[in-house]
Amino acid sequence: MPRFFCGQVCGDTAVVTGEDARHMALSLRMKIGEAVTVCDGAGRDYQCRIETIAPEQVLLRVGQSAVSAGEPRVEITLYQAMPKGDKFESIVQKAVELGAARIVPVLTHRCVSRPDEKAMRKKLERYNRIALEAAKQCGRGRIPQVEPMLHFSQAVERMKCEPLAILFYENADQPLHQALRSGVGGRISLMVGSEGGFEPSEAGFAVENGLMALSLGSRILRCETAPVAALAAILYAAGSFDHICPNRIYGRM
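^ that's the sequence the OP posted. Answer follows.
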C-alpha cells in the first residue's frame, strides 16, 4: 500500500499537499476510493481512503491508526564530524534508514571540510531533503532532522546530558559490546570522527566530560562506514531488529 507523510490529521480527515500530492495525482495516477497509508510525522500511521484528489491537494478519509512500526525503541542522535566531499549525504541517508532520530554535523580539529555559515545553510537544506526522502523510502514514522553544525566542544556539552553518550575512538581500549552487555534503551548519543579521526586531546576532553570512548573493533573503518556499523550494533542490542513487518521490500533502489 502506498505510504506518504501528510500535512495534518484532523479527526477523521487527513490532507496531503505539495510534492506528495502531485506524485499521487500525476505520477501514480491514484483514484478516489484507493487505500493509502499516511504518517503524521510524529510517529503515528493512519489507514485512509482517497476522497478527493488533485495535484495541489489530496483529501483522505481516516480509518484505523496505530503507532508507526518503523520507529526504533531507542532515540539515537548521531554526531558526525564533517567528512570530505559528498560522504555526509550518504551518512544521512543510511543513518535515517537505520533509525537515527537526528543527525548533527560536527566540526573537529581534523576535519578537512570546513564549510562557512553560508555554505552550511545550503548544505543543510540538501541534507534535510535527503533525510525526508530516506524516511519515506524506509517507512519511518518521523522525519529525522539534520541540525546546524556544532563545534566539537559544543557537541560534547550536549552529549554529556544524555543517559548514554559514546565517542567512537580508534585508540579506545574498551569495545562497544562490553558497553551493550546490560542492554540499551532510552536516549543515546554517539559521535563518529571524520577521515582523520579525533585528536587525543579531543578524546580526553570527551572522557573528562562523561562520554564513553569505545572501539568498533580491530579494523579501521572509513568515516562513512563507522556510523552505519555503530548504529546497526546499538539498534540490534536494543531489539530493533526483532520485529518483522509484513510486505516489506528489501534492497529497494
